[in-house]
Specification:
Helix content of chain B: 10-25%
Shape of chain A: globular
Number of helices of chain A: 5
CATH topology of chain B: Aldehyde Oxidoreductase, domain 3
Radius of gyration of chain B: 24 Å
Strand content of chain B: 5-15%
CATH class of chain B: Alpha Beta
Oligomer: heterodimer
Distance between the termini of chain A: 48 Å
Structural class of chain A: alpha+beta
Radius of gyration of chain A: 15 Å
Shape of chain B: flat
CATH superfamily of the largest domain in chain A: Beta-grasp domain
CATH architecture of the largest domain in chain A: Roll
Number of helices of chain B: 6
CATH class of the largest domain in chain A: Alpha Beta
Order of helices and strands of chain A: EEHEEEHHHH
Number of domains of chain B: 1
CATH architecture of chain B: Alpha-Beta Complex
Order of helices and strands of chain B: HEEHEEEHEHHH
Helix content of chain A: 25-40%
Strand order of the largest sheet of chain A: 2-1-5-3-4
Number of strands of chain A: 5
Largest sheet of chain B: 3 strands, antiparallel
Strand order of the largest sheet of chain B: 1-5-3
Distance between the termini of chain B: 64 Å
CATH superfamily of chain B: Aldehyde oxidase/xanthine dehydrogenase, a/b hammerhead
């Protein structure tokens, strides 16, 4: 066991973890943040994408110990405490950008950093940004439409 | 008089309706199968065939049983009492190719489970599965199912009326060659089941109750086990109790006291 300190969604945690425990399993099984999904468990599908110090990473390809001393943000942190959805979450809902919802948390966390620039995004830039996130049911068009709209003031 | 109500007069048809499940999916609050946690829950990992068609010459589970955290290792002999599931699509005239829960004689597709490991957590379960040693002898040139030499499961031809005469009379004849793709339902959420065997009722239904038996031969897979569908996330309705995944999970649940 190794002791790590990690900040997740604004809360500091000090935890004893096995060296081989994946960051995704730490979030899901130890902290109960099951919004982060595991699809392929080999870095191909992007469903487990979270923000590490603000940048998207695959939580299924990182050990929890590698995130020690760093800040993690998950899908549970996007909406306001009163339940009001993040603009990107609202846009996905408006454009039917989700169906089964399994890829959605990873999509959201891959896209949120893009919106920080406050610049309107072109569809091609959005497609490039989510090129590492697989959707198997909704289709990408409505997701791209939603992101383009959310990027506009 | 047409008794069907006009769609425009119905409450929802033709209207823009927001889905009730979206907020939960967008915030990570909704549960999928993988998010279900029950008291005393264990993890199940399968040892899967790497070969498309092979004879199983031996399965050695001794090393797996001593892996820390492993509660049970089940081979074909341990689940011999479980009825095979029958063909998922019940077509009249189709050859029946029963799917055994854990086949002891041979494997017929890549990924077919040959042993099951039950353990305290996912890591121990997969360690245990890695420790099972299976010896396979390839059967590359033999038919997958005995008695079906060409591998053809079902073929149907239908004829309606005098086709040649109809074309001969037609004002226009259009020739097209059509190719239809093979559709595989393969959502991003992988197949998963939570089974919780209740000895008092012989049921495994969580949260779904026991479902109606489909065929006489699938009594275990439907009446005595049921897959736990996700509460609201995912494609819950498409997980059929007629698939072999269900008894493969439910039977080990009943075989592992905890």
């Amino acid at each position: 066991m190794t002791t790590i300190s990690i900040e997740v969604n604004g809360t500091e945690h000090e935890l004893d973890v096995a060296p081989r425990l994946l960051l995704a399993d730490l979030l899901r099984d130890r902290l109960g943040l099951t919004g982060t999904k595991i699809g392929c468990a080999m870095g191909a599908c992007g469903a487990c994408t979270v923000l590490l110090d603000g940048a998207p990473v695959r939580a299924c390809l990182m050990f929890a110990v590698q995130a020690s001393g760093r800040t993690v943000r998950t899908v549970e942190d996007l909406a306001e405490e009163n339940g009001e959805l993040h603009p990107l979450q609202r846009a996905l809902r408006e454009h039917h950008g989700l169906q089964c919802g399994y890829c959605t948390p990873g999509m959201l966390m891959a896209i949120v950093p893009l919106l920080a620039s406050a610049q309107p995004l072109e569809p091609d830039a959005v497609r490039e940004a989510i090129s590492g996130n697989l959707c198997r049911c909704t289709g990408y068009d409505t997701i791209v439409d939603a992101v383009v709209e959310a990027s506009r003031p | 008089m047409n008794e069907w109500p006009l769609y425009a007069q119905q409450r929802w048809a033709g209207k823009r309706v927001q889905r009730l499940e979206d907020p939960g999916m967008l915030t990570g609050a909704i549960s999928y199968v993988t998010d279900v946690q029950l008291p005393r829950m264990l993890e199940l990992a399968f040892v899967s065939s790497p070969a498309p068609h092979a004879r199983i010459t031996s399965i050695d589970v001794d090393a797996a049983r001593s892996v820390p955290g492993v509660r049970a290792v089940l081979g074909p002999g341990d689940l011999a009492h479980v009825h095979p599931t029958m063909d998922f699509v019940d077509l009249e005239g189709a050859l029946k190719t029963p799917r055994v829960t854990l086949p002891g004689d041979r494997v017929r597709y890549v990924g077919e489970p040959v042993a099951a490991v039950v353990a305290d957590d996912r890591y121990a379960a997969e360690d245990g599965a890695d420790a099972v040693i299976v010896a396979l002898e390839p059967l590359d040139d033999e038919p997958i199912h005995d008695g079906i030499p060409d591998g053809r499961h079902f073929r149907q031809a239908a004829a309606h009326g005098d086709v040649d005469a109809a074309f001969a009379r037609a004002a226009h004849v259009v020739r097209r060659r059509l190719a239809v793709q093979r559709v595989v339902t393969s959502p991003l959420e992988t197949c998963g089941i939570v089974a919780d065997y209740d000895a008092a009722t012989s049921c495994c239904g969580w949260p779904r109750s026991c479902s109606r038996p489909r065929t006489k031969t699938s009594s275990w897979s439907t009446a005595r086990s049921a897959s736990a569908a996700p509460r609201r996330g995912g494609f819950r309705s498409r997980r059929s109790p007629g698939r072999p995944t269900s008894p493969r999970t439910s039977a080990p649940s009943s075989a592992t006291p905890r």
